[in-house]
What does this fold into?
Amino acid sequence: MNVLKPKAGDSIAIFGAGSVGLSALMAAKLMECGPIIVIDIQNERLELAKELGATTVINGINEDVEKEIEALGGVFFSVESTGNTDVLKQAIACLKKQGKCGVIGAPPLDATVEMDVNDILNNGKSIIGIVEGHSNPKEFIPRLIELQQKGLFPFEKFVSYYRFSEINQAFADMKSGKAIKPILQF
It folds into this structure.
């Protein structure tokens, strides 16, 4: 919302359906993007993405992501939220001319990405690092809460609560994909 600033009807692909990717999906829906494509490797997360407004979902293990997005005409925006550098290459490759890729996922330190520089130059593609949505938390968090209260940003759909004594279960559920955003309660 704050960095890519898509307009109604702009196409977007969101790589990763964790809490960050699903938040990007809800933002894309608020901005009236379309189509909204979500890519993940867990079918349960893709089902939730559909519920939250994804118009197309792609399982990154079972399908050729770049080919599927190309068949849809490519996208003007992409968001990479996994921290996987191979996925970042896909997020850049699927862009149309003058497309923009927002990089939110944090790979391991010193990670590098090999990419086709001529594709970026010849097609005017942009790669933008995004930290905390480039937002002013004092202004943006109340806005998100207001949107959530109106039912327009239902982040509660991917939050799971655990007692502190269940910390190991919370970690295991997060690792398995059962819990998207576990929150410990004291």
Q: What stands out?
A: The first helix runs from residue 19 to 30.
